Amino acid sequence: MAIKFLLLVNKQGQTRLAQYYEYVTLDERVVTEAEIIRKCLGRNETQCSFMEYKHFRVIYRRYASLYFILGVDSTENELAVLEFIHNVVETFDRYFNNVCELDVSFLFAFG
Q: Which of 1, 31, 42, 65 has its CA 20 to 30 A from that of 15?
């Protein structure tokens, strides 16, 4: 799986975690994050969780108050990426015993 980036964003659009796996300049990151977050938060629950953005595919899923957003190659299987997101959430839930937004924020800030 060729993951380009992982974003964890709350319902207000605040980025709680941004991890990039390819070099992207800071200016590009800010613009890209803002556009992707705006598009993901603007979609309703009946719409698909996949969308094309520039040269990659964005796949997201909402759990409680957090959106897990991944940017992957255009050739990746969307359902496999959704399963990956679900496994990450289950892992967090077991580690924190009912994970919440603050757990994730503090884990990466102080961990």
A: 1
